[in-house]
Amino acid sequence: MNFIKELFGYWADNIDLLLLYTGEHLLMVIIAVGLALIVGTLLGIICSRYKRVAPIILTLANVVQVIPSLALLAILMLYFGLGFYTVVIGLFLYSLLPIIRNTYVGLEEVDKTTVEAGHGIGMTYFQILTKVQLPLSMPFIMAGLRIAAVIAVGVATLAPIVGGDGLGREIFSGINSRNTIRIYAGAIPACIVAVIADILLGKLEREMKIKVTR
Length: 214
Description:
Helix content is 85%, strand content 0%.
C-alpha cells in the first residue's frame, strides 16, 4: 500500500516531466511507424506483384527482426551517432516486417475473380490495386500496423541507451539509482501507451473488416 502511495506521489510531483517523456516517446513511435507503414506497404505491394522478389524482401525483413533490439540500436549508433534519429531508424526497421508481411498476405487473399473482373472492364493495374486490392486488404494491413505499433512502443524504452529520450529515460534513471519507484513510474505509462495503441488500432481493424464484408 505504501508503495502505491509513493508511486502516485511521485507521479503527482513529476507530472510535467513524465508528460514530456510520454510526448517524446509517442513522437518517436509515430514517426517511425508512420514511415514503416508507407515503406512497408510499398514493399508488400512489390512482393505481391513480383513473386520472385518476395522471398528476398521478406528474408531481409526477418533478419532485421531477429537482431536483438539493443544490438540493432548499438549498430545504428555507430553510423548515425547518438540521439533521436538513431532511435527512429531502429524503430522503423523493427516495424517493417509485420507491415510488409500483412500487406503481402492481404493482397494475396483478395479473390482472384474480383481482380479478373477488374481486368475485364478495362481497369489498369494501378486502378485495380488502389480501388480493389488495397481496400479489400486493409484489415490485414491494419493488423500489421497494430503489431508494429505495440513492438515500437516497447523497443522505444531502450532509447536512452543510444542518447534518445522518452519514458525509457525515467526507467534507466531508476535502474541507475536503484529506485524502484522511478522504474515503475516510467514502465507503467509505457505499458499504458502500448495497451491504448493496441485497443485503438484493434478497433480500427475491426471497422475495416466490417466495411470489407459489407
